[in-house]
Amino acid sequence: MAPPLTRILRRHLETFGTGPGGRVFRGVRGGELATVTYRRVWDRARLAALSDAEYASPLAKRPYDLRHACVSTWLNGGVPATQVAEWVGRSVEVLLRVYAKCIEGQDEAAKRCIEQALRDD
Predict the structure, then answer these.
(1) Residue pair 71/45 in contact by the 8 Å Cβ criterion
(2) CA atoms of 19 and 31, how far apart (whole Å)
(3) What is the pLDDT of residue 69?
(4) Cα angle vertex 98, ends 86, 114, to 5°?
């Protein structure tokens, strides 16, 4: 069975279809949603989901911050940069230029991989 949010999304698509360019959400006249609409909804969601201190912080201040957190998590989880770059539609060069400072704590895992590779030979 699909996760709850997947079911909600599928139900929305069955009811409303997609808008121009395959967009999931569209404005009242059928076109693209205004940026201010996204901002207002995002702000309300943050207010509902976060503590007062978290809401006052830069945590998930913009929807784009979720992409940044996701990419950083993948890279820190050891997903190869080439794979992450493909998933997010960036070149490896751009990906690493933007996210290299977010990658941390992989030294020991990398050393273990090297040791294992040398033992396998």
Answers:
(1) no
(2) 7
(3) 87
(4) 70
Contacts of 120 (CB under 8 A, 6+ apart): none
Q: How far apart are CA 78 and CA 108, in angstroms?
A: 12
Q: Which residues contact 9 (CB under 8 A, 6 or more apart)?
A: 24
Alpha carbon distance 40, 97 (integer Å): 31
Q: Please name the residue that has the structure tokens 């207002």.
A: 40
Sequence-distant (6+) residues with CB within 8 A of 16 are: none
Whole-angstrom distance, CA of residue 6 vs CA of residue 103: 30
Our CA angle for 3, 31, 13, nearest 5°, is 25
Token digits of residue 12: 């929305």
Residues 99, 71: Cα–Cα separation, whole Å: 8
| Degrees, nearest 5: CA angle 64-69-71 | 95
State the residue for tokens 């033992």.
Answer: 119
Whole-number Å distance between alpha carbons of 75 and 102: 8
User: pTM, whole model, 2 decimals?
Assistant: 0.59
* pLDDT at position 41: 92
